[in-house]
Amino acid sequence: MSRAQFAFAAHPDAIADLRQLPEPVRDQALLNLHQLVHGERVASRLSERLEGCHKIVLGAGDERATHRLVVQFRDAPPDSKHSREVYLVAAGTRHEYAVYRFAQNRLGRTGLNTPPPGADPALEARVREAQEARVRAATARSARPVRARGQGGLAYTSASPGFAPTAAPRKAR
Questions:
Q1: Which residues pair with 74 in a beta bridge?
Q2: What angle do CA 40, 41, 45 make, to 5 degrees?
């Protein structure tokens, strides 16, 4: 087995997104994330409001390309043994661009709070700090791992913020 080339991190709500994916798509998503971390997969660049993000196309069975992962490649925290990390921003259906809207909201890039291209570097820094503060706050609210009884590993709960069963998907017209 190859060594990981990147660290991995995820937005707390992106973990809930993964749990809500249909099982075959979730399995494919986890495999693709594993391949990204090990440098065995390439993701496609996104533009405009999601500049700096990348997408991975998912789908299973007769329904190909129905879901997406949105990730960022960014600097890893100083205490990491890796210099870069794969950061999962969102996972979900492509229908009506839902996954991209989730990613924009989580990154604070709704267009209302994004500085215009070529804006003052101080303004860009303030916007970036505000976005990072929102991510830190969401991380602080997320459920903490709980030690599994009788096992050395961790057990995770579905009590994460934003985790709720989704309604049945609407059919396209």
A1: 85
A2: 150
Q: Read off the amino acid at residue 1.
A: M
Classify 9 as helix, strand or coil.
strand
pLDDT tens readout for residues 38-82: 988 889 999 888 989 999 999 877 778 899 999 999 998 888 899
Mean pLDDT of 123-135: 76
Q: Are 123 and 115 in contact (CB under 8 A)?
A: yes
Residue 134 burial (C-beta neighbours within 10 Å; 0-12, 13-18, 19+): middle
Q: How far apart are CA 160 and CA 16, in angstroms?
A: 7
Q: The pTM is what?
A: 0.64
Burial class (CB in 10 A: 0-12, 13-18, 19+), 121: exposed
DSSP 8-class letter at 75: E
In whole angstroms, give the CA distance from residue 87 to residue 76.
9
In residues, how long is the chain?
Answer: 173
The Cα–Cα gap between 16 and 157 comes to 10
Residue type, 82: H
Gap between the Cα atoms of 159 and 162, Å rounded: 8
Q: Which amino acid is at 161?
A: P
3-state secondary structure string, 78-93? CCCCCCEEEEEEEEEE
